[in-house]
Amino acid sequence: MPPKKSAKPNVSAEELLGHYREMLLIRRFEEKAGQLYGMGLIGGFCHLYIGQEAVVVGLEAAAEEGDKRVTSYRDHGHMLACGMDPKGIMAELTGREGGFSKGKGGSMHMFSKEKHFYGGHGIVAAQVPLGAGLAFADKYKGNGRVTFAYFGDGAANQGQVYETYNMAELWDLPVVFVIENNQYAMGTSVQRSTKSPSLWERGAAYGIPGEEVDGMDVLKVKEAGERAVAHCRTGKGPYILEVKTYRYRGHSMSDPAKYRTREEVQKMRDERDPIEQVRDMLLTGKHASEDDLKAIDKDIKAIVNEAAEFSKESPEPALDELWTDIYAEEAV
Amino acid sequence: MAIELLMPALSPTMEEGTLAKWMVKEGDEVKSGDIIAEIETDKATMEFEAVDEGIMGKIVVAEGTEGVKVNAVIAILVEDGEDVPEASASTSTAAAAPAAAETKAPAQAAAPAPVASDSAPDWEDGTELKPTTVREALRDAMAEEMRRDEDVFLMGEEVAEYQGAYKISQGLLDEFGAKRIIDTPITEHGFAGIGVGAAFGGLKPIVEFMTFNFAMQAIDHIINSAAKTLYMSGGQMGAPMVFRGPNGAAARVGAQHSQDYAAWYMQIPGLKVVMPYSAADAKGLMKTAIRDPNPVIFLENEILYGKSFDVPVMDDFTIPFGKAKIERAGDDVTIVSFGIGMTYALEAAEKLAEDGINAEVINLRTLRPMDMPTVLASVQKTNRCVTVEEGWPQGSVGSWIASEIMQKAFDYLDAPVITCTGKDVPMPYAANLEKHALVTTDEVVEAVKQVTYR
Fold it and tell me: Which residues of B are catalytic?
């Protein structure tokens, strides 16, 4: 079990402000994406990350340059948190030339070699062995890097997760398996999916240590992330973090979310919101004034509006793009 | 500043909907995240949340209104103390995308372009030749490439300590060690995914399936993860790797161990598909496959593993993809095959020669890219074509070849193309039934006689 942490986290004002800013960027970006979807500018499936912001922001704070990450189709937050340009993400959502995949991937399929973001995968749990494979490559090269493989509570019931656990521990792969347990696999609650009470404990069957983490508290996520990364980086093999989180919006834009009550969502928003928690900490600790936070809000709004404008102005991909990137002529 | 609230699209297919209920009234304060209305889409009743903050200035579309178009103004949000502006347009043009310059996509085959019909021999006359089995050729090719490139490694069931279930990797563990020759647990879906991830991460994996029948457990990673990522990432990353193993019927192993997957994989843009016949094919193409920056499906055959062929003794013998080999020249009919199908094709050609029918036999070697120029040139000469494969008839490799010939050389045909395939049944176990389930040399001879009207 992880050591008990003191109630007062040892964190600087600067760091807290950074977390606030990054979480707010995800929140506002996703709200804007929802709006653009409503206007018909974004098509198909669009899975918003609202409510889960502390997970990626906390874990990115535990990562080092060169560490890798891979996730599912609910990927906008991961991309923003690892520093990918909001303009390129939004323009991919609108299917434009300026998007990270030149408009050919969409919301669920985005990548950035530069930021070590390996997707954006649309098949539930496929990213788990892919993440272990990235870690395999790093171990093979001996470069000391760690991979974060994110998946949801829904994916946690896929067989390939356990095939991967088995090999990851067998080969001591430096991979952090992050179960983002937002409690609903589309419309099916965890209680209706499994009788096993905790998902991270399933790792014990393969000898993989792990822990449950309060995913609404960015500082707790960061601390747990640091333990996980230290374990992986010192060659002890994989580590599992089951991060308890919550998504406020439906599974995708077309989900009426009738499988839970409005009160349940509202209670979470009112009492556990990850951004409000940090905001309170900043204000009560006198690390920032209301005006300071207003200035950040304004700044974030400008970034998101700029991304939205870019995503509308960037042209659709040239029709020639239909035929490119099917085969590589040389190593990419 | 007043903000127009537009009827939102709330599903991928919604064009209009019913404004079922307003949850706020004019004059109410609205915060971002508040549910302000219920909207019925083509699929469900959805809650509509506010994104912006303000006062509900005017409800433009009353609740209960049906057929409200997506992007029509349904309400106006104002700041405290601000007047409601005159409701301007009832629809917004915000969603109109900048028009693309062209209206018609340029036509181009998705398959990688084959090397233009190139009849140069695989090696120069006078090159020293060494009888080699297909099994040894595959092993030699992998060993040569592993010596050449540290990033190449082999993983699969029983590839290391057992020396390969079919002894293809014999001796490789001794030379390259356990870091590069890796035994996996029996977990095809998982290790295929790890292999693809390792390729994303910069390595060049060779993933062995004990047989391709078991790769069905892993086909999601082969197709969705390996084949499509280069495209989905706009060319940023892909999977330079080889999936290899025996494919098709062996002998008496029944329905679940005897399927030919050539036609399945050949259909996938993003994959390259190789099906060698001879040991020289196996060696030259395997080396090319390992060097290729794309995912390559390498379909071997258990019955061919022990067959011996001449292989050139050269420092670096490779065969390019997309280059068929004319194994036997002839004028009367073109027989097109690949892999173990070549044994029937060549046997049939021998028999036909006794009857005075001179068949040209083409060994495709790679199915994607496919060397159609060589096939078409031959058909233009012979005016007749028969294809031969062990796989099933519906959606077969031969069906595609026949279709291509019909579309590109129709006027040259003097007879319909006949596709000789395995029978449309799961593989039976009984020896006599199994023999009948596969394509036979006699069927090829018969097909050629039909197209030559003999």
Answer: 188, 257
